[in-house]
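Hi Y.,

Following your request, here is the sequence exactly as I used it, all 195 residues.
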Amino acid sequence: MSNTAERLEISAEAYLQAEARSSVKHEYIAGEVFAMAGAQESHVTIALNIATLLRSHVRGSPCRVYISDMKVRVDAADSFFYPDVFVTCDNRDVGESLMKRHPNLIIEVLSKSTAVYDYSAKFGYYQQLESLQEYVLIKPERMAIDVFRRDTENQWVLYSFAAGDELTLTSIDFHCAIAALYEDVSLESADQIIV
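Below is the corresponding structure, written out as tokens. Let me know if you'd prefer a different format.
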């Protein structure tokens, strides 16, 4: 008798049907479904701060800002994700009420349990989105933001921002002080940070 759990796979259609009835959000990767955990206060506050700033910035343009309740579909990876915040300026996304397929900016606020995944495998899935121009990773415990920006040769270049810097997102011509993203967030002192 084996102790190995049986791996169950479902179709994207079955996932979407189940997700519509579920009280818990799940991400879907090529037939596998993963429940999402709740977030801490700093995580939620940073996501709200950046979403609010971006919404104000794109008002009156064709761009739309979405928070973690809207799915991003990565067709090339047969996957669905719930980014913390994302922006799409593509009119092909206008008629899609359950998901968006053409974001140009995706933002994830890191947590200790997902940071490695967000920097590695999840970034790999997101890179398959031809529309994606920038991928932003925000550290909630200190003022530190990494922006991966796709260049003209389709290479991803890292730009890091820290306390005192101005965050620049070229995909939507956005600039703001890093401190604005951390408003109302209690930051750890340098000796408490685990690297």
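The first helix runs from residue 12 to 21.

Thanks again,
Q.
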